Amino acid sequence: MAIALSWAYWIPVAMTGGEMSHFPGLMGPLVAGFVVTAMADGRNGSWDLARRMVRWRVPGRWYAAALVPGAVGAVAVAGQALVGEWPAWRELSSMPGLPEVGWVGTFGMVLVVNGFGEEVGWRGVAWPELRRRRSIGRAAMLLAVPWAIWHVPVFWIDSGLRGFDLWLVPGWLGGLAAGAVVLGWLVERADGSLLVVAIFHAFLNMASATPATEGIPAIAASVVVIGWAVWILRRTVERDVSEIPASG
Predict the structure, then answer these.
(1) Using an 8 Å Cβ cutoff, are 105 and 183 in contact?
(2) Which of helix, strand or coil describes residue 42?
(3) How confident is the model at residue 182 (pLDDT cuts 50, 70, 90)?
(4) Residue 244: what are its φ and ψ, rounded to 5°?
(5) What is the pTM (predicted TM-score) of this model?
(6) Is the CB of residue 221 less than 8 Å from the CB of residue 79?
(7) pLDDT (0 to 100) of residue 243
(8) Which conformational region is residue 20 in: left (phi greater than 0), alpha (psi within -120 to 50 degrees), or beta?
(9) Residue 81 pLDDT > 90, yes or no?
């Protein structure tokens, strides 16, 4: 349903030149999440999903974790400035497809439309079901497939991924799979708080999709997420092995 809703907007935009913003289509997973939850669990399930969107009483270390992509992007931008010049504030605070309303305003829109728009569906509804009787790695790989397919039309939209070099697609897919691991791990550690993972998602986009953060900052953020995912998977395997009773 998430794919159907988003594609219903993105495909006409792509077929008519791809000049309109792709952002409205990002709300597909959120809408699908609430529709499916209402059908499966009724009003109580819908209220629980809504409460998880504003669940803010979680340990501060998980908010700190959500800030990591933004911190990595800031360090990378500062590093580039040491050998060049600082980017204009407009380059740091604007994003294709959104009106120019300053960094705080842009972050707020990205948080609502991109962060909650995706995470309510993927991590709020799909992830808990996929995790039933599955390891975190297997659940993440299963979720990464529809998540990747969902993105396909934005490769033909100007404010999306049009112009993305084909040779970078494998890396993009790897980053998406790693993101599925990290975001799934984070939502579990943060007591199911969709607010925390939406903040992480928004900072990751701000650290990779503004004019000032394309290139090295985006690569740096992706490398950190991939490394984080490897650490999570390694810890998971080590824990599972430690729980196997010794023979004899």
Answers:
(1) no
(2) helix
(3) very high
(4) -75, 125
(5) 0.94
(6) no
(7) 47
(8) beta
(9) no
Q: Taking the CA atoms of the chain, what radius of gyration do you get in angstroms?
A: 18
Asked whether the beta carbons of 32 and 5 are under 8 A apart, the reply is yes
Cα distance between residue 180 and residue 183, in whole Å: 5
Structure token digits, residue 226: 């991939």
If you search the block for the tokens 């079901």, which residue do you land on? 129
Mean pLDDT (the chain) is: 93
State how far the Cα of 121 lies from the Cα of 126, in Å rounded to an integer: 6
Please compute the mean of the pLDDT values over residues 87-113 and round it to a whole number: 93
Cβ 201 vs Cβ 68: under 8 Å: no
Give start and end residues of each alpha helix (H) in 159-193.
Answer: 169-189
Q: Tell me the C-alpha to C-alpha distance, in Å, between residue 32 and each of 25, 60, 100, 121, 231.
A: 12, 30, 29, 7, 32
Q: How far is CA 153 from CA 19, 118, 150, 220, in A?
A: 13, 16, 8, 26
Where b means 16+ CB within 10 Å and e means fewer, 67-81 reads ebbbebbbebbeebe
21: tokens are: 């913003």
Distance CA 229, CA 227 (A): 5
Confidence of residue 240 (pLDDT cuts 50, 70, 90): low
